Queue: 3 jobs
Job 1
Amino acid sequence: MTRDHNTAGLRGIFTGETAICAVGQQATGLTYHGYDISDLTEQTSYEEVAYLLMHGELPNKSELDAWLADLKQARELPPSLIAILEKIPAHAHPMDVMRTACSMLGILEPELNFNQQLTIAKRLLSVLPSIICYWYWFSKTGLRINTATDDDSIAGYFLRMLYGHPPTAQQQRALDVSLILYAEHEFNASTFTARVCASTLSDFYSAICGAIGSLRGPLHGGANEAVLQLIRRYPTPQQAITGVAEKLQHKEKIMGFGHAVYKHVDPRNAVIKRWAKKLSEHTEDSHYYDVAEAIEQFMQEQKQLCANLDFYSAISYHFLGIPTALFTPVFVCSRITGWSAHIIEQRDNNVLIRPRADYTGPPRRQLIPLKHRK
């Protein structure tokens, strides 16, 4: 059988059905359970979107109040998990910390039956920010931060723990919008990993650990870190254009551009770009925005490649004071909602996911006994 290279990496191959998210409909769209991403980022909070993804409908006021109360109660770290976090060295990769902590939580609070899946999803949604912020502060300074706060907003909660004081309203909302944008994106690599694991009827934590492992890779979750490294190299927009042109001449990949599904525009880009612009007006590194915009325009003109969500997210997170090493863990704190929704959906109508492969090895051949092999 001849392999079709146009479908390498399963590009363009439909491997299942979902009611959770539609990506690339009418070439550019993105909806969560039918709601356009632009409307969600304008009119809802991340907590509402998390509820939507896991329940299929937006909450009313009483449902949201109960949801927020549950999330706040689930933030505290168990002592045994704290002990593990304090043993993880400062040089560890933060995504390894997230994966290890999730696995340990699965031992401490195991899923005994699938009726617990929504409770576990809420627990992970609440506790993942606690995990990464606790380890970050303890590993760097020895400080044991208090992870029990009364913040309604997960974005505000994360930034309070990171800063040591409450964020401004603009900072909180900027991160809130980013969490909405990253919350779900159909059958991407990490979500597909979670669904494959769930299809074996494995436990919830194993599926999430697999997803975290997939997101750890630089071709999936680490792109925004590479984007910031790129932008930091250039003091001015013109130097950035010259530098990127040289990279293109040497066939180097420019991270933050192009997408497996979006060929002309990533609908999330315009939203995060507006927030990057707002945040740039209150920082000493405002030139990063000008540099980024110059690179975006140059890549569009020269390569007809659109900037994806990661591109302006990189400088947005930098403007928010989030350490570069924590960019991808913040992605985890957002995408846990999409992963959870897909695990639940997979289990609701489960079929073991077992694709085939085109064999490209040698034809059938005769085995030569060891003593006769040369």
Job 2
Amino acid sequence: MSPHPGEANAPVPSPVEGRVWLRAAYAYGALVALALAYFLVRMPYQISDDLEHLLIAQYQTLADVIRTRFITVESMRPAMWVTQKVLFDLAPAGRYFETFKAIHVAELTLTVVLFVRLLRIRTAIDFTALPLTLAVLVGIHTFNVTMREGYPVNHFMSVLICCLAVVNLADAQSQRWWHDALAALISLYAFFMFETGALAWVCIVAAYMTGWRGISSRGVVASTAILAFYLIVRFMVLDVGTRTIGANASGYGFHTLDTGQILAMFGDAPWKFYLYNIVCAWLSVLFSEPRGGIFQFTHFVTLGAIPPWSLINVTSSTIGTVLIAACIGRRIRRWMRWNLDRDDGLLLLFLGVLAANSAISYPYLKEVVVSPAGMFYAVALYVALRELLQRARADASMPRAIAIAVPLLILSAGWTLRAANLVETMRESAFVNRNDWAVAEEREDEVRPKWRTRHPDAERLVGDLKREIVNMPVPQPYTLRATRGWFDPY
């Protein structure tokens, strides 16, 4: 492989030095994961979807789960339901909350570990770029929503893990037969976990095309065959289909449209709505605007009142995107000759996932759905940041130092605030969820779905969960009036 740009005259780290920086990177990543885990375990389940999932796992047998979750209208997610069912059955009686929260922490930790491994921290400059990169990973709005989605098993986080796992397999220094087998199994699980699981296949193909050979051509073919099997089962055998236009409310322009409004506006030409969603998903990852299909920042501008959090989001994302675009621009000529180094592979991987993830979002916009693209945005920005730091070391003149320091200062401050916002929104979600459980008996329509009346222990399960959650010490998420406008309420 050719050296990274700006690295030609850089000293090559010794193996010992490389291991030191790598261990420091894992230690820092573990610190970030544990800090977030503290707030994650103190965030109760939502009383609507999350409780229903647990009650379904209690009521249905494993065979029932497999049979019914293959034929749910417009979705086919048997792996998600089977995972929840198996873990529910394995959990000690009365310890379901602790069991599934432990799974949440494990998912978060594994995501961060695989993410750090993919960056290959080996030098002081690599490590210097890491804190900002992790702030981008946890601070981007797509990851924020992923953390709050929860469910007994966070299937959105599971998709992130599957994507990172296959990319790390493809990035292995040597090729092993079990890499192919494991990649195929991960693909199978991801496809039937959630619709965005198809991005695991995109990662495998993109990595192979850029020259990564940890997964061989046999692994690529196997994963492609599994994808074809999934598509045949979904669209030809079971005719499950996908979300249709008007099935969900969705953002458009400056407002949220309900299902009737969407059908009235786009019923005769649904492709216009689909195209709008694809473009908005793409823009949202790159610029944090729009959000869920709604052009919030633009609307604030027209009103003449831009809250600080919105300005921070758009500014930090725009600067990051400009850095990524500049990094890509310097490589375009080599790309046209298909002369690629490892960093080129990471950038192309991001572009491939961004395009595919945006396309998958065509039925309706939901920020958590584009979380894989948001994660690989952080990877691409790491490449751009490291290259920027390497160029600064090569030319330490004052003008260049100022030209680099100013955007990095703005970028660091903005993404640090966005990372802190994740903690604030998790605290607020914990407070709201706990209060919802406290008044559960007044919300019979939500806490008594049909599943609860069909199992003799359903009352006990709900009662145990309620007692544990209501007695959980959850701090009130009060903020000062002067700082309230700095935290993204969405």
Job 3
Amino acid sequence: MLLDVLTIVCATALAVSIHFHAGLQTLALAAWHGTWMQVRSMGALVVLLFGFATALIVISRQMHLYTPRRLNGILHEQRLSAQACLYSGLLLIAALYLIHADDIPRSLVLIALGLVTVLLSLRRLIYRLMIYRHFERGVGTRNVLVVGTGPEARALRHHLESIRHLGYVFKGFIDYPGSVSRSRIAVAPGDVVGTFDTLFENARKQFVDEIFFTTRCERGVMHKVLERARLQGVDLRVVPDMYDGLAWNSPIEYIGQFPTIPLHSGRVAETGLLLKRGMDILLAILTLAVFAPLLLAIAVAVKLDSHGPVLYFSDRIGKRGRLFRCIKFRTMVRDAEQRRADMMHMNERDGVLFKISNDPRITRLGRFLRKYSLDELPQLVNVLRGDMSIVGPRPPLASEVQEYKLSHLRRLDVMPGITGLWQVQARQDPSFDSYISLDVAYVENWSVWLDVKILLRTIGAVLAGTGT
């Protein structure tokens, strides 16, 4: 919506510029110049622009132009966008007639409407193509489980995998009693990830966003599944022509060419997440710009202090199990990873964590960098790339995640961060349970204000040199 408003303002400004520099309607132009600075003309123009933008937003929302891009095709979205501009333009022209705004040239209005239509369509096309590129990188996709192993289930799986721009990632079939395949083509055993009894356990392990039902089950059972889906924040869809009465008054949404009936759709704090991402980008750019000389000095010092590369790259597990390369200044000797196995008996942390207070692998400069968390500064690049956030649970190693219990995976529901609740509240606590519980508490109670408070406490923790 914000992008649409900005597009309308830019299109209007461009229309005014074109109108005044193209020599259109000379007589009207002179009259317009005479009234341009008058309060009535300026006030009318601002009010009309505000009303047009409001009408366009409301109409676009009614046409579902702000629903996820995967649910509408490009041509369908472009047609609805032009239609919304047409309806809003008709309302604008009617308003001009009612208020007798004769001092506003009609040619200017027509140019503005044309530019708004073109620029809005172009903006939505570019935005959609950017989303498709994110899907190709595995960003913003939605993991899917399909209940049933019949021909409908296999067809749905093929459909989701063949149309990549839908943004769905198939995670497996769930075998349901009685959903025997009615065709000669059998489902590969490896594609069936669990039974109906372990549906939500598998959904948790696979970081599933949506569950598709392609087989009929009892109404009471479906109600129980719906309640579990609501509690766990998993979206639920069924193929039409099922569950008489349960899906009454529910709209049919097309996933590509497949009609589905959404029984539950979880709410996402879109405004809060938008503010969080904007804050991440702003803080990352400002910090990199301000501390650029310090980053260069640290890079030179690391190179002079010990043999090895300046930066250390580590494969970490991010949001919903996504693998990414985490960047840090190197604080250990070159063969630190090879020596880790020989030092496991010195581990001072419990559970899956590994930490030694006087680790002999850490270089002299590395101890200083870790004490003041300066080794973490390159992770701002990860923030700009969208792999991490400024605030969030620390990204774990794959070996650590393999030892997680089912409840521990909750901390991977959000973007990992450079700092977090555990870092400012219990950094020296060796308890793995405390580490997990604080991260889960952050996920379940997240807000922009909580991020701000953690950031403020982080400044104090860094200045106090509590890092190890």
